[in-house]
Design a protein that fits this description.
The protein is built from 6 helices and 7 strands. It has a 7-stranded mixed beta sheet. The chain has one domain: Gcn5-related N-acetyltransferase (GNAT) (Aminopeptidase), CATH 3.40.630.30. The longest helix is centred in the middle third of the chain and has 15 residues. 30% of the residues are buried. Helices cover 28% and strands 30% of the residues. The chain is α+β, with helices and mostly antiparallel strands. The protein starts with 10 loop residues before the first strand and ends in a 7-residue tail after the last helix. Bound molecules: coenzyme A. Coenzyme A (COA) binds next to helix 2, strand 4, helix 4 and helix 5. This is N-acetyltransferase domain-containing protein. It comes from Zasmidium cellare ATCC 36951.
């Protein structure tokens, strides 16, 4: 069902320096970008995107471009259409023994609410357990991002904590939830090492 490069309807490849324009297109929808990006709510700059790209290429365990295959019957067909990115940041130097990673996902608006986010999210969970040997996955999500929270809970993630009033936009503070999943638990984690 999953390989390191594909899930049933989607393909995955590493982000490349040529992806700058695509990453810029992910900033087009203000609310989506604000939900995904932890920085101050302000117009993004090309420099910020370029730095983000460099950071992902050098510092991420895997920053994967999520794509629709040109030929849906062949997940390896060329000229896929990029629809989003999942950025998985592995343990920082000195923290490797904990096998814990942090990740986030964003899709272009036109490809949301079609089940692709759930599929890409579950693939990222699978990849981190099965290919990257992670033991624990975690992510942060803002209060009010109900669609994302639903997708994460469906995959088995639980809310483990709350950074109260940790993000400010629209004139008020919003809570940020910490959500986590252990290998072998939850729907998406069951394929993990201990669940096999
Ligand atoms: C969050 C995101 C990745 C989800 O991907 P998606 O393709 O839109 O999601 P899916 O279509 O796979 O699934 C959406 C699910 O949420 C449900 N949903 C939609 N709106 C909802 C809402 N307001 N409240 C609760 N659930 C909601 C849908 O019914 C569906 O659930 P189901 O499959 O059980 O029926 C995508 O919407 C996105 O990129 N958002 C902008 C960036 C972002 O917020 N990223 C997360 C940062 S933490």
């Amino acid at each position: 069902m999953y390989t390191a490069r594909s899930s049933p309807r989607l393909t995955y490849r590493a982000v490349e320096s040529s992806d700058e324009a695509f990453l810029w297109s992910l900033t087009t929808n203000h609310e989506d970008w604000r939900n995904f990006n932890p920085v101050m709510d302000r117009p993004p700059t090309k420099t910020y995107i370029s730095d983000w790209l460099k950071k992902m290429m050098t510092g991420s365990m895997l920053a994967a471009i999520v794509s629709l295959p040109k030929d849906p019957s062949n997940p390896n067909s060329a000229e896929d259409t990029p629809i989003g990115i999942v950025n998985m940041v592995g343990p920082l130097p000195g923290l490797e023994s904990h096998h814990c990673s942090l990740f986030g996902l964003i899709l272009l608006p036109g490809f949301q609410c079609k089940g692709y986010g759930t599929e890409a999210f579950n693939w990222a969970v699978w990849w981190q357990f099965e290919c990257a040997n992670m033991h624990r996955l975690e992510l942060f999500v803002a209060e009010g991002n109900e669609r994302a929270i639903h997708v994460y809970k469906k995959a088995g993630f639980s809310v483990e904590g709350c950074r109260r009033e940790a993000k400010f936009f629209e004139g008020r503070y919003w809570d940020i939830f910490l959500m986590g999943l252990l290998v072998g638990s939850g729907e998406a984690g069951k394929g993990g090492r201990r669940g096999l």
